[in-house]
Write a structure and sequence with these properties.
This protein is of the alpha/beta class and about 575 residues long. The chain has 22 helices and 19 strands.
Amino acid sequence: MATTDIKTPDTIPAAPAYPAQVTGMDILARALRMVGIDTMYGLVGIPVTELAYIAQGRGIRFISFRHEQQAGMAAATHGFLTGKPGVLLTVSSLGFLNGLTATANATVNCYPMIQISGSSVREPIDLLQGTYEGLDQLNIAKPLVKAAYRVNKPEDIPTAVVRAYRAAISGRPGGVYLDVTTPCLGAIMNADDADKLFYTPVDLCPAIVPSPDAVRRAADLIASAKKPAIIIGKGAAYAKVEEQLKTLVDKTGIPYYPMSMAKGVLPDAGPLSALSCRTTIMEESDVVVLVGARLNWLLSRGHGKWSKTVKFVQLDIDPEEIDANVPIAAPVVGDLASSLNALIAALPDKLSVDPTWVPGLQAQTKEKDAKFEARLAANASATPMTHWSALGAIKPVMAANPDVILVNEGANTLDDTRDTLEMALPRHRIDCATWAIMGMGMGSCVGAAVATGKSVVAIEGDSAFGFSGMDFSTICRFRLPVTVVIFNNGGIYNGVGVNMAGTSDPAPTTLDIRARYDKLGDAFGAKTYYVTTPAELTAALTEAIASKAPALIDVQLAADSGKESGHIGYLNPTPLEQITV
């Protein structure tokens, strides 16, 4: 039959009109955007790979890592610096567990963070029947995080995201776990029905105003003090109350001592900084004002060297923190901005402080600082380098670049860097914080650079770098302005450990004094430097910061630079002449 003989109807029926549809993954990405999330850190795989692509398409920047723990450290750092929850995305089972380390650490350190993990079908998990990555993730997470929720239906996703966001930032911030099942991620809804789920949440983080009676009690106690001091914690850095603290210090003339991650909230070199007078404050202060600082192990839990008659004023957002270790004479429970504003208004214009108190601290500071500078000067030309000669070379470079964020971890590398480098600006020092957890370095570098757009310098011990070193590749892949400085003394504490069995195996604390960490930077296209003298280190760091590109500086230290922590000093060190670089 010829084609011209084919009979066709005068009208062709239109194709059926099916409504547009979306999956749970699209709803989740839109819900995150609904609360203002614009960045997500993670590592993809079954069942969340497509979610990462969809989120990226919805305008969420996705920073992909080599290990979930580092992605979580980045999310936690993002939360600390911005006050908005950093978001971590992981796969199920072991990926979830890897990320949970960071989420638990965020909870302890009060960083707002949300971990979102895909999870397997519920029924075989609940009946222990065996399924792909069948871990009961929600119940594992619950004891370790501030809040934990499971989402089984796509209709509940926006509500779950808002609840997770509120939990992460309200009251005392912390880590929140959001368990999203595979059926929920893959569920299909009509787009019109999905649109109706979204809304604008109101007052996600309401102010918590302190009781007037509590403020009056605290003001009266401070006004009676003869030797008062203020201890600034990282809670004050997170709360961004540097202006209120400056007003309080200017009005009262009370000296201040910053905890590690609070360095720079008020300048370390300020005239009322008592950074070098920790012991004197503990032994002699009669009234101590804790601002976003906890009396935990970092402050001897209020015992030890503390005066037996000292009285504490504690400003904290969590009432459960009050009296945690010692009785608090004047608790002020509320958000720090509200509490400080009220306290400043309630204090008299002039305090009756002992006239010898502040001049005595200032004289002590001057004397101790001079001794410290003399130590740095004495080591200025030491080769092989020590921690002190290396830090002496770094100090003027960092002073010339005060807006560079410092990330710091290690044993001696952490302690000595904290003592050496002064901070002038708030939220410019990130370290291993309350749990002293090693391995936060590369993740925190990424989180700090992405969250702020600023340049970052990490000063890492060689042991600490080993926990997260592979994610230096993430720094390079995203072309972040991060310089990683590795102090290589060949070991944990130092490289002179001895195998007490007399065999050829290295000692438990021994790494590799000959390691060339700069070669790792070469592998990923970073600017790299191998330095053996203080002058080389100063030049390399100056150039690396100016480049605003990924850089790695391998700093060769002497194997005996550094001392052990704890009580293993009885181990016999290897004579230095037997260890060659």
